[in-house]
Design a protein that fits this description.
The protein has 254 residues and is mainly alpha-helical. The chain is 81% helix and 0% strand. The chain is globular. The N and C termini lie far apart (49 Å).
Length: 254
């Protein structure tokens, strides 16, 4: 964190306000979308829409904006450290790409994930496994997702990806690339590690509700704490056991 303290106050504030502003706008979009869905459901007007091109695009945008709102808070330390390293390199006469190039690469990875999440939602919808509120209406599906996410918390690949997310300075030292495209590729690489760390948790949105704001917030907070707390990796495993237990109770309790 010493690198962050070396970042000029003006740059620090600009980055925090930029990432915070984007995050806030994303959550406002989710809030209004969820409110609109709840109002439609309350009046009995909510119906399952056919998956035409327009609806697919709407769902894709929903997922993309949701991922931005959920993941930008947890990547903020990495962005601040990248900005500090970039500024120090620039002061030494080494051309460095703007921080926005790194962030763009990171966001691009999660937008790619959003496409696959939309396809998964389409598949589940076609199999009649989702309710109009985009919540699993299958005991088997809900239990399986919880158990799978819990097991994933204990796998070596989860640990490998989480270490990269928990050690921003180490990641930058080992993946540094120069130029705008290099910064973009660094963002994509970090996004890939972040995706490897969190994709199973994102699948739990189908359990608690894709538009359940409380559920979205809980997952967001868990992802953030897992990355920044001193024993976040240990608490992640404990939570994994809780997910496996919950999945088992759901599966065998019905």
């Amino acid at each position: 964190m010493q690198l962050i303290r070396e970042l000029p106050r003006r740059d620090f504030i600009a980055i925090i306000l930029s990432l915070g502003g984007i995050t806030l706008l994303s959550w406002l979009y989710l809030f209004f979308l969820a409110s609109d869905m709840s109002l439609s459901h309350g009046t009995g007007a909510m119906q399952i829409r056919p998956w035409d091109a327009g609806y697919f695009l709407m769902m894709f945008l929903m997922w993309a904006i949701m991922m931005v709102g959920m993941m930008l808070p947890s990547v903020t330390p990495m962005v601040l450290i990248y900005a500090a390293v970039a500024r120090k390199s620039a002061a030494q006469g080494t051309p460095v790409a703007p921080t926005s190039a790194f962030v763009s690469g990171y966001v691009a990875m999660w937008i790619t994930f959003s496409l696959f999440a939309t396809l998964a939602q389409w598949g589940l919808d076609q199999a009649a496994l989702l309710s109009p509120r985009m919540i699993s209406n299958s005991v088997g599906l809900g239990a399986s997702l919880l158990i799978a996410a819990g097991i994933y918390q204990w796998l070596p690949i989860k640990d490998k990806c989480l270490r990269q997310c928990r050690s921003p300075a180490h990641f930058i030292a080992n993946h540094w690339r120069s130029g705008a495209m290099g910064a973009f590729r660094m963002g994509v690489s970090h996004g890939a590690f972040c995706l490897g760390c969190c994709w199973a948790l994102m699948c739990l949105l189908f359990v608690g509700g894709v538009m359940n704001l409380l559920w979205i917030a809980l997952i967001t907070i868990f992802v953030l704490l897992e990355k920044i707390l001193p024993f976040g990796d240990v608490s992640g495993r404990v939570m994994g056991l809780a997910m496996i237990t919950a999945g088992g109770l759901i599966a065998f309790g019905n």
